[in-house]
Amino acid sequence: MVIVESLDINDSSGTKGRISLINNLDKCGFQLLVCHYTQKHVDLNSINLAHINCIPIPEKKWTLLYFLSRTERIFTRITKLNLNPYLENWFGFSFTFFNDSNSIATAVKKQFDFSPDFVITLSKGASFRPHHALLKLPELHDKWIAYIHDPFPYHFYPRPYNWIQPGYAQKEFFFNNVSKKAKYSAFPSLLLKDWMGSYFINFDKTGIVIPHQIKNMNVVSTNLPSYFKSDKFTLLHAGNLMRQRNPVALIEAYKNFINSNPEAAAESQLLILGKSSYFEKELKSYQKELENLIVINKNIAFDEVLQLQFAVSVNIILESISEISPFLPGKFPHCIAANKPILLLSPYYSETKRLLGDNYEFWSEASDVKKITKHIQIMFQNWKNNSNIKLNRPDLEYYLDIDNLKIIIQNLSA
Fold first, then answer.
1. What is the CATH number of domain 2-210?
2. Can you tell me the distance from the alpha carbon of 244 to that of 295, in angstroms, rounded to the nearest whole number?
3. Which of 65, 145, 208, 237 has the greatest number of C-beta atoms within 10 Å?
4. Whole-model pTM above 0.90?
5. For 140-167, how does the pLDDT look when each residue is reduced to its tens digit (9 = 90+)?
6. Domain 233-392 in CATH: superfamily?
7. Checking DSSP bridges between strand 324-325 and strand 33-36, what pairing results, if any?
8. What does the alpha-carbon distance between residue 15 and residue 35 come to, in Å, rounded to a whole number?
């Protein structure tokens, strides 16, 4: 049984990863029952889940929590005052969160006749609603695989992330219970497993690594956007630029590359796609200087981004300027599947760097303009010599695909 918060592939990178995991569990031959709390119509054919028993979980209405949550929303809409931080300081979570958790728990109880060997809870962002719901169902705890995609609560993120959520103590108590009650805890990253195990010791005992999955992708680049020029050396960063993912050193390096290689101005382009509101001023300024810097400051449909990742010359993975990055980026499997060189800008201690290997050539700290410039220069020359150069990492393709996933699951004791 898979209990997943959303199957809307365009709502977040987290949901894309969860759908890929469900797809690959199915391809492994496991019988699946997927209970999802998407709260909107989902075309299951479009995400290759139409042949799987997928049950939408309805929101419980006409309950006290539902009434309180809607009252709070109406109050906020009328007064423009957000009560949620105060409520979370008192209760740990919002009324909506509690009602969603109850809705999920009630729906799962109705599926007990499925009698699964394992129950996997999948979430996105900082929600973990399915995990909260499973705490209410002790009869499933000896089958529970709690999948933890990111650090939680926020105050356990590594610097430079420095968020402290309202109700942080209650959230910490909640996750401590998850660490104690789930039979297994699954993480997409070895570094994340170790990181969370340093806060909740039970994760060290129950933790396994289930990496983000490569989905079977028959990508045909037929509807590429007009700004992409297939005859140019194209570097692509796809994904939201949070405050901690600073692209300035990357752009400075590209500018240096253009200045030292005037012919490259007509033969290259740098694409930065995704929400980048934190750096909007800087990006607009750089666009006035660099004709071939293309910035699309909005969310872009998954299919379009995927086509570009397969079509460009180089995919860029940009992480925060930090001592450690325990995250495995959701786009990492897409970059591996695209089989194009990766320009990795990350801390020395990074899960992506660990997987690519200490000897991977095109790694740099995200702030090292000189080294990034050198990498771009070498990649450009490689492209000039052989415009179809490949990443060629069958080891990582195996690590992220169904054969490895099947072994991981089969090695667990039900």
1. 3.40.50.2000
2. 18
3. 237
4. yes
5. 999 999 999 999 999 999 988 888 999 9
6. Glycogen Phosphorylase B; (3.40.50.2000)
7. unpaired
8. 14
